Description:
single chain; alpha/beta; 4 domains
Amino acid sequence: MAQAPLLQLSQITLTFGGNPLFERLDLVVQPGDRVALVGRNGSGKSTLMKLMAGLVEADGGVRTLAPGTAVGYMEQDPDLTPFATLGDFAAQNLDPSEHYRIEMAAEGLDFDPDLSPARASGGERRRAALAKLLAEAPELMLLDEPTNHLDIHAIGWLEERLRETRAAYVLISHDRAFLRALSRATLWLDRGQMRRRETGFDGFEEWRDTLWAEEDDARHKLNRKIKAEARWAVEGISARRKRNQGRVRALQALRAERAGQIRRQGTAAMGFESAAPSGKLVAELEHVHKSYGDRPIVSDLSLRVMRGERVALVGPNGAGKTTLLRLITGEEDPDSGSIRRGTNLVTALFDQSRAQLDPNATLWENLTGDPLMRVPGQSDQVMVRGQPKHVVGYLKEFLFDESQARAPVRALSGGEKARLLLARIMAQPSNLLVLDEPTNDLDVETLDLLQDILSEYDGTVLLVSHDRDFIDRIASSTLVFEGEGRVTAYAGGWSDYQAQRRGLGPGPAAPAKASGQPKGAKAAEKPSRAGSRLSFTEEHRLEKLPAEIARLEAEIAKLAALLADPELFTREPVKFRKATEALTTRQGALDAAEQEWLTLAEKAEG
């Protein structure tokens, strides 16, 4: 006998600012469901989750909760003012005999339950809200970006807790590795409509692209039918005394159908422009020490970063990743040791705290007020890579509406603030990108685009991130903070680091051989398959290439379909040019990937 749903939303309609956010939306959560809720930034995922929690009331439709079902919602910005400590807030609904659950969660999530809310950071407050939800253990958990402000080890701890729970849960997250590990079904919120797929997040992007391709094909057929019917209506007048009114009405209905279709939101027109190349050496650290009080940040670190490298910095919150970035770029000085920096460095910084943005100023003012973007004598223009552009036009390239231009930055979502900051740093050429937690709050599509433009960037990238999938896609080497000021370099990304650590066995780790390794260190032995003639990195590359080739083929097919539109050049010349350039780039990348696969496959076969 089928179980009754825990939660059901039926025919939900909700309107904000005169525009419908949801129209006749249906959603069901069953006992034991492990669901990824995905969609573009601004699609309404967080609002939908609040509807599910009963915190927002819909304009129409019905919310049905199974009798006796407790629903827990992880608040993004909880009100802690009535509580003396974070622990008091987290334990407010627990029996005193159950307070040990808060201590366990606090240890796993790395926050101090005795800390006063007045002294707590936004991340600590959010971790307390997550601890509260886990300790209360409701039958249905609603988690909105639970991995934000968690380091990789805390994310791993949370994954284990969610794997072990018998409760149903719905997750919103930008962390693809987290979603792949935990989800068994996918809810896709797209332009106010809900689609459900009875498999986890892995494979979602292929499923989404297939549905979009079918939608584009249907729209193309509709446009052709409208053109044919319109031609009949005009050209047939001279051959008939009166029109066939039935066909005229049918033509009007077809046009109404097309007008009623909701266009997909495009992707941001992001792109970094490289300045003149820096010197071959970006930075060289010799026996560098840095401490804050009695706490060592880095101890006896020798490190060389060369032009073109993509170096990821990984470690617990507070380990010193941002401090090392500041040492490398010259914003801080070491306590001892020497740092030599390369020549002709032009740095662009993405700050995790978004401190470069004035929250009380408008988007317009945040762009025109930037000295590097200001156009003398032009209050409505900004300088973008050497060319003046209208403020609103540039904001539209990053998916902001004209109405948002005069709105304060504090009204933006986390993802919108990240896009605005990217708009600022992408306006100027650079050859050294320093990206401190760039992935927080970005949707999957924007993350994919950021990954693509970083892969095409000619300069050097220093990246701090807790997003394991993003590190795997970007990093050529990974610096791992292993405690007590020890920083070790490993070749490749997060998965490569994990594999190399497994190959080391017990005892202290030795750094992998990489251009960013601590100098003079012995390289770790890399595990390889029996009889293989490939190195570990080559084996890993050979395994990944088929998926990369398939992705490039799919992107080429989409671009070719776009360019097949004969009216695209006259209607949208900029889009036509960008699509043509992207097609050429991806065809070159496909040729290179296929050749690389053949070379490695032949080497593997001996």
